[in-house]
């Protein structure tokens, strides 16, 4: 292959991997937050992502509330999808997830994991099929001209050009801002300390006056909101149906395990790693092996570094 | 002779008449009040939209049939559609088919299930139940299994690939004055696209002097089309065959082509299948991005079906009637014709009637591009013809064959 073509392909794969990886990273952070603090493996996380995408869609296109923002509308809607899903997830935790998690199951043999498995899988099915009834089967997208246009960066070698998809680059920047904001929240605020205490030792946290159930509720809602923002960002460049969560939940789990279960920043880097693997594997392998490449890397990491790329063996949020 | 004038001959004639009347009465009594036909299509899951479009077409046909007096040879029996959801997997489609044959023992026939892999599973069940099954699915394997009760109304994928290239080459040569020589192929890894691209790779491209300069296969759904379109940009084909199976992938690839400066008719792009000409595709992208995109497929209502299309639009509020709705409409008309001809709603007699069809330029044949309705021994529609639509100002227009075309085809010159 011509060296210039190879260079252009590699540069574009690098940029696309980074941009998409950051959005994957944001999804993974939401899942990791829930697992890290609550020790709940949430199989409905992909469907919370779907709710975020639909919230963004209705804010911009469906009801047109944010249409006046023009090109910024889809990204503002993605951010606003967070609080909307936060409220819904709060209720879901209050009525469902809290029944099979937290102090209620602390002394049980399986720590509530079987119940959590059934509840979150059931929730996923309800959200998918409820979404089908509510939103219909027609694919939707938050339409923006930015998703089909790019900033072109000439690198000065022949006509080698880097294409920066405008919608994805903006989504990537929003994702980074949200992750940094979340990290600051957990690291620098009283609420963050309470959440981390509830994660490290729920019983001790209770003795210190922390309402562990409330901390778990906030963690579940916050993790859902973060993933919903990612869903809103995805909606600015991909079309989606109520079943979109199925396509992303595997990526989320792979990213979280790659980065280190329960490690927030590890999950983000896990997502970024998946973005890179997806893009670079397509340079050398047929594109249908993109997802296979992710799992080859995933298995290698599991064998060589079971605690994940960026995690410590006992790391928690 | 008697005084009353009522002879023995009169008595025999009256007796024969009474017997005949009685027989007719029994025939009417045996005729069912309604005849059930099935639609098994994905009503939930990622392909639910296609299932809904099919349902719209089938329901309209049923209403048209009942409004025109039902099945006359069955004493005006009304047709009733029973709908089963194929769901989102082959397993669910097969389960739905098993439920359907168990719960509806009096079905006269059915149609479905859109996705070839679903239809393959469903027809394993309907074949055992000896239920005549009409399908729009494209895979050639559907009618290569020796089944007797499946009737495939589309040209098979391999035949579509063979049929489409000469049309495209001629169109390109007319528009540009020279034959294209460099072909790009992007296809997804599912059965139908692979059976389309197989003959292109094997024989057809070489037959027309085309060199395949990029040939990429992806697993749907795509999360990003950058690697694919980057390779297309590097290879610089004269035109691109993009063979996928779902709307989200269509959007992603068309937008990525635009992002790389290859969209908006700069690189002539040809797709395959009804999903590339559905209203939601233009709602998800924009008319500019789809401008000039050509899509070859098995059926589309042409200028001879303008009245049908108008009624469909009024009834459903869909912007147009397309591939996924015209097929179930036509299939319901085929069942009516089969029951009229056989005078029975018995599934075996209906199947036998369909096997015996050789209808030209009338009845249900009018809803197919070739205007001929005859299934061969394998159940394939003889003379099945491909049509091509082209996106123009946000609306897909039928451009080939010319006899049905509502607009002239053009080859994007870049």
Any overview of this molecule?
Chain B: Belongs to the leucine-binding protein family. Chain B: Pfam families: Peripla_BP_6. The complex is a heterodimer of chains A (about 325) and B (about 425). The longest helix of chain A has about 35 residues. In chain A, helix 2 packs across helix 8. Helix content of chain A is about 70%, strand content about 5%. Chain A is globular, with a radius of gyration of 20 Å. Chain A has a two-stranded antiparallel sheet with strand order 1-2. Chain A is built from 11 helices and 2 strands. By secondary structure, chain A is mostly helical. Chain A has one domain: ABC transporter involved in vitamin B12 uptake, BtuC, CATH 1.10.3470. In chain A, strand 1 and strand 2 form a beta hairpin. By secondary structure, chain B is α/β, with parallel strands linked by helices. Chain B is about 45% helix and about 15% strand. In chain B, strands 7-6-8-9-10-13-14 form a 7-stranded mixed sheet, with helices on both faces. In chain B, helix 5 crosses helix 6 and helix 12 crosses helix 13. In chain B, about 55% of the residues are buried. Classes of the chains: A mainly alpha (about 325), B alpha/beta (about 425). Chains A and B meet through helix 1 and helix 10 of A and helix 2, strand 7, helix 7, helix 8 and helix 9 of B.
């Amino acid at each position: 292959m011509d060296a210039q073509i190879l260079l252009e392909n590699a540069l574009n794969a690098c940029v696309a991997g980074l941009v998409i990886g950051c959005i994957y990273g944001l999804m993974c952070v939401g899942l990791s937050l829930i697992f890290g603090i609550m020790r709940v493996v949430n199989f409905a996380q992909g469907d919370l992502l779907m709710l975020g995408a639909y919230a963004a869609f209705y804010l911009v296109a469906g009801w047109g509330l944010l249409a006046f923002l023009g090109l910024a509308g889809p990204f503002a809607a993605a951010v606003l999808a967070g609080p909307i899903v936060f409220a819904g997830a709060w209720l879901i935790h209050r009525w469902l997830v809290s029944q099979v998690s937290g102090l209620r199951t602390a002394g049980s043999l399986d720590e509530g994991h079987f119940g959590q498995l059934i509840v979150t899988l059931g929730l996923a099915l309800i959200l998918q099929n409820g979404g089908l009834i509510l939103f219909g089967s027609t694919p939707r997208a938050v339409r923006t001209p930015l998703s089909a246009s790019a900033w072109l960066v000439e690198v000065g070698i022949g006509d080698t050009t880097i294409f920066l998809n405008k919608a994805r680059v903006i989504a990537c920047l929003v994702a980074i801002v949200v992750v940094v904001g979340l990290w600051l929240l957990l690291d620098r605020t009283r609420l963050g300390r309470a959440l981390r205490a509830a994660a490290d030792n729920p019983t001790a946290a209770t003795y210190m006056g922390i309402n562990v159930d409330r901390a778990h509720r906030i963690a579940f809602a916050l993790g859902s909101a973060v993933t919903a923002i990612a869903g809103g960002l995805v909606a600015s460049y991909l079309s989606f149906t109520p079943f979109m969560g199925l396509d992303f939940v595997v990526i989320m789990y792979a990213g979280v395990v790659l980065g280190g279960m329960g490690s927030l920043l590890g999950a983000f880097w896990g997502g970024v790693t998946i973005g890179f693997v997806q893009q670079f594997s397509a340079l050398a392998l047929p594109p249908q092996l993109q997802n296979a490449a992710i799992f080859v890397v995933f298995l290698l990491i599991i064998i060589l570094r079971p605690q994940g790329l960026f995690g410590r063996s006992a790391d928690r949020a | 002779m008697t005084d009353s004038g009522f002879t023995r001959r009169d008595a025999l004639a009256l007796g024969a008449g009474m017997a005949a009347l009685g027989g007719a009465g029994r025939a009417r009594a045996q005729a069912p009040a309604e005849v059930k036909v099935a639609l098994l299509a994905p009503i939930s899951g990622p392909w639910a939209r296609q299932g809904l479009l099919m349902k719209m077409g089938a329901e309209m046909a049923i209403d048209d049939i009942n409004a025109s007096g039902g099945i006359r040879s069955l004493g005006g029996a009304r047709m009733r559609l029973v709908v089963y959801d194929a769901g989102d997997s082959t397993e669910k489609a097969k389960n739905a088919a098993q439920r359907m044959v168990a719960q509806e023992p009096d079905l006269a026939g059915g149609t479905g299930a859109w996705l070839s892999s679903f239809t393959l599973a469903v027809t394993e069940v309907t074949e055992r139940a000896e239920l005549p099954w009409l399908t729009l699915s494209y895979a050639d394997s559907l009618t290569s299994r020796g089944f007797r009760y499946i009737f495939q109304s589309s040209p098979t994928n391999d035949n579509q690939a063979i049929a489409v290239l000469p049309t495209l080459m001629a169109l390109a040569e007319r528009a540009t004055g020279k034959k294209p020589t460099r072909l790009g192929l992007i296809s997804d890894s599912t059965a139908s696209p692979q059976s389309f691209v197989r003959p292109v790779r094997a024989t057809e491209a070489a037959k027309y002097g085309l060199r395949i300069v990029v040939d990429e296969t992806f697993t749907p759904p795509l999360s990003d089309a950058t690697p694919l379109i980057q390779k297309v940009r590097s290879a610089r084909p004269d035109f691109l065959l993009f063979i996928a199976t779902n709307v989200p992938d269509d959007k992603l690839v068309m937008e990525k082509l635009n992002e790389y400066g290859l969209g908006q008719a700069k690189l002539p792009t040809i797709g395959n299948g009804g999903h590339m000409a559905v209203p939601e595709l233009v709602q998800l992208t924009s008319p500019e991005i789809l401008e000039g995109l050509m899509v070859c497929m098995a059926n589309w209502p042409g200028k001879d079906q303008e009245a049908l299309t108008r009624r469909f639009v009024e009834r459903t509020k869909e912007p147009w009637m397309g591939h996924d709705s015209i097929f179930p409409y036509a299939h319901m008309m085929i069942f009516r014709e089969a029951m009229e001809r056989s005078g029975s709603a018995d599934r075996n007699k209906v199947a036998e009637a369909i096997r015996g069809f050789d209808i030209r330029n009338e009845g249900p044949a009018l809803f197919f591009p070739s205007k001929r309705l005859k299934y061969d021994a394998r159940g394939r529609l003889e003379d099945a013809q491909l049509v091509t639509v082209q996106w123009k100002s946000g609306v897909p227009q039928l451009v080939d064959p010319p006899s049905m075309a509502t607009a002239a085809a053009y080859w994007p010159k870049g």
